[in-house]
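Researcher: Sequence recovery benchmark, item below. Answer with residues only.
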């Protein structure tokens, strides 16, 4: 045992495991550390977390398969496999995660979650861990929580200046609701935390700032943060109702998911509180339709909601290796970009960006500020598209336009844009094609060309 320890510790011990390693070396060091048995699993986990922190990974996935356990890092929104380790180490490594996050070790058939707080001689980041049973054993995902709060100033997120200025204006108001929308992992939480942090730094002494979250991702200092627990009945709705008796000035509600939470949040925004929350919708104007669908009276939505931010994250070109490139002409057409002399840029891949060509992400967003014209449209229950058009007429830049502008100015690429915001007519084109195929199936006497193209589809379906 002593001998077995001596070898890897000399070459790949904790000293080495805690310095930044290139992604492709993680596998080798991990293999050496895991050979140490019980202690190896402990060291391996610490090493994985410290490497995840060095590489600025947001999440680490431990995924069991038939013959191995893979470890993947999510870097700037995209998963990358960094190691594949022997099946014999799987249970020990997952058990280590469960021990540290206070989960029940022997319970393997049910999902669990927990949190691991930083420890001076282990790792300097909090992580949130969860496990989930699969046919090949438990898998686990850990989220690395970023404590570098200086990174979280609203103007450091990559938004256009006018969006940042608008957001600052809205959160300085004493009342009203600011709602954020976007798919998961579109950076909504980071935006909200940055706004709360700024409020805390400027107004903590004279404003009572509270949050209700699921889960609490960052700890903000002098902000009263609360984690809801639906399993015990402590839901957003219950927490929000009770919190209003605690004399808050600013309330952040993690998400408006149901009618009752929506009702209380809107009411709070009308009665002297600033409410910041997220709600599910495709665009900023769609948020009003969603609130109305939840049973909120249009005049309440129109007067309480002072602004809506819809956001997305685009990976930005690595500044160390970016160079001109010619995008597929089809992309230009799909995004209505005229064939002009734009200087399109793309990262070629270098050591700094681990060969990916992208480094970091920038937020693109559309900020709809409710003015009289938009309020009237909401009260009239106007269609989402009409509200959107009015917002654009009043100066709102859509997140699509914002994202296209970033590509045209060389900050990101069409490939990235296409992945984050697919062209609007792509879905319509696919649906038209499907409809055409369905039509030719019921009408075999249709044009020869369509019938021929329908045949492989029908065959594929039978094959399934
Ligand atoms: Zn690079």
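Model:
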């Amino acid at each position: 045992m002593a001998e077995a320890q001596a070898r890897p510790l000399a070459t790949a011990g904790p000293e080495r495991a805690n310095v930044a390693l290139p992604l492709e070396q993680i596998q080798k060091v991990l293999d050496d550390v895991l050979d140490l048995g019980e202690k190896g699993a402990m060291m391996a986990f610490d090493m994985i977390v410290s490497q995840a922190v060095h590489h600025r990974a947001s999440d680490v996935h431990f995924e069991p398969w038939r013959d191995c356990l893979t470890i993947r890092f999510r870097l700037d929104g995209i998963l990358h496999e960094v190691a594949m380790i022997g099946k014999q180490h799987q249970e020990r490594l997952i058990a280590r995660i469960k021990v540290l996050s206070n989960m029940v070790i022997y319970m393997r058939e049910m999902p669990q979650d927990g949190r691991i707080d930083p420890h001076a001689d282990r790792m300097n980041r909090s992580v949130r861990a969860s496990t989930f049973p699969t046919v090949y054993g438990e898998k686990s995902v850990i989220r690395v929580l970023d404590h570098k709060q200086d990174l979280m100033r609203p103007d450091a997120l990559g938004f256009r200046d006018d969006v940042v200025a608008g957001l600052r204006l809205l959160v300085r108001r004493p009342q009203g609701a600011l709602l954020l929308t976007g798919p998961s992992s579109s950076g909504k939480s980071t935006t909200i935390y940055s706004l709360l942090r700024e409020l805390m730094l400027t107004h903590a002494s004279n404003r009572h700032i509270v949050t209700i979250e699921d889960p609490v991702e960052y700890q903000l200092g002098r902000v009263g943060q609360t984690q809801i627990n639906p399993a015990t009945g402590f839901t957003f709705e219950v927490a929000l109702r009770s919190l209003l008796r605690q004399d808050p000035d600013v309330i952040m509600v993690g998400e408006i998911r149901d009618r009752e939470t929506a009702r209380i949040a809107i009411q709070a925004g009308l009665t002297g509180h600033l409410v910041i929350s997220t709600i599910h919708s495709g665009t900023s104007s769609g948020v009003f339709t969603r609130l109305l669908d939840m049973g909120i009276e249009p005049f309440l939505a129109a007067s309480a909601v002072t602004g809506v931010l819809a956001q997305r994250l685009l990976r930005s070109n690595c500044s160390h290796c970016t160079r001109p490139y010619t995008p597929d002409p089809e992309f230009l057409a799909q995004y209505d970009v005229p064939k002009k002399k734009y200087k399109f840029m793309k990262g070629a891949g270098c050591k700094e960006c681990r060969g990916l060509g992208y480094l970091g992400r920038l937020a693109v967003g559309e900020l709809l500020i409710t003015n009289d014209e938009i309020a009237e449209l909401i009260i009239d229950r106007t269609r989402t598209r009409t509200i959107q058009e009015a917002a654009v007429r009043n100066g709102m830049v859509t997140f699509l336009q914002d994202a296209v502008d970033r590509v045209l100015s060389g900050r990101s690429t069409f490939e990235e844009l296409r992945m984050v915001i697919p062209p609007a007519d792509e879905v319509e084109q696919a649906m038209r094609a499907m409809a055409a195929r369905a039509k030719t199936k019921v009408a075999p006497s249709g044009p020869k060309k369509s019938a021929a193209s329908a045949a492989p589809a029908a065959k594929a379906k039978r094959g399934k």
